[in-house]
Design a protein that fits this description.
Blueprint: E1 2-6, H1 13-25, E2 30-33, H2 44-55, E3 60-61, H3 65-71, H4 80-91, H5 95-102, E4 107-110, E5 113-116, H6 132-140, E6 146-148, E7 156-160, E8 166-169, E9 176-178, E10 184-188, E11 202-208, E12 213-219, H7 223-232, H8 237-245
Parallel strand pairs: 1-2, 2-3, 5-6, 6-10
Antiparallel strand pairs: 1-11, 4-5, 7-8, 7-10, 9-12, 11-12
Helix pairs in contact: 3-4, 7-8
Length: 247
Amino acid sequence: MLLAVLTDLHANREAVEACLAHAKERAADQYAFLGDLVGYGADPGWVIDTVMAYVNRGAYVLMGNHDLGVLQDDRKDMNPTARFVVEWTRQNLNEVQTNFIRELPMQFELDQCLFVHANAWAPERWEYVDGAMEAARSMRATNAQITFCGHVHTPSLYHMNHAGKVATFTPSPDVSVPLSKLRRWLAQPGSVGQPRDGNPAACYALFDTQQLELTFFRVPYDTETASQKVLAAGLPASLAHRLIHGA
């Protein structure tokens, strides 16, 4: 099975459309959405409706911290910008969309793989895997050979040998990486809706579950339209700027 792994969509319709079209062109069989469907972007309802349609065809989907924020009154752990957008998002979702978020799980497993939004040691606490130490902690918290997670808006790949030594691999777009069974792996596809590595192109990955090969992609999209929609919605200008510059 060729599985498209998308995370941190962040209500960015233009980026989501581009990545889904890209995956379809490459004959993806199934889709996994690793949370943060909403937040930051101007099209939360459209993104949730689209993910719901994919779920009806068998796709997998997780809850992210911004999704959970829509359901909560107490958001003290979020920065002021994120809190503002989450409250705006809540007012722009209908009951069906909100109930869909409410039922999302924190993790799921598929064959030898674990899928979480943030990390494997405490998915509900939203702590970041942003270095080798955290990657090791996450991999040691599960028996899965391969862990997929989001939350960090940059693409990364970590691997751990039998002795527990962890190394970081910087993936190149469009280059297939064989995931050896002799190692444990943690893959972060990067953000569809709000990349933060200086490259505004949307991120996602394709995983061949039979061949155990993972390919990262960068997909250009209409950042100008997406950013203008953020401004038109009355959301912070810094979020529009970030879409243009990818940082």
